[in-house]
């Protein structure tokens, strides 16, 4: 392979892997019944300031809660997974379909980790 073509392939590979890495944000479960991303931690009651402080640090919790009051029972993680405490479900996204119902497929893995179902 000539050097110019090799450079082009390497640049393409770097661009694709960088874009892919930006979209891929895995959730972690640092303890049973808790899910965290890089911004927040939640349990089956919703977004939790004490859990966010414990697992992500006080600065993350202060930043998260700085806007004031907000609904702690419906939230999206950085990877797009949406969880609703009232439904006790996590879905692949938060969007609605034409019928006015949530259209995201139920994410069984994160529903089980967060709600034990």
TrEMBL record:
UniProt keyword list: Signal
Signal peptide: 1-21
Domain of life according to the entry: Bacteria
Protein name in the entry: Fels-1 prophage
Taxonomic source organism: Verminephrobacter eiseniae (strain EF01-2)
Species lineage: Bacteria, Pseudomonadati, Pseudomonadota, Betaproteobacteria, Burkholderiales
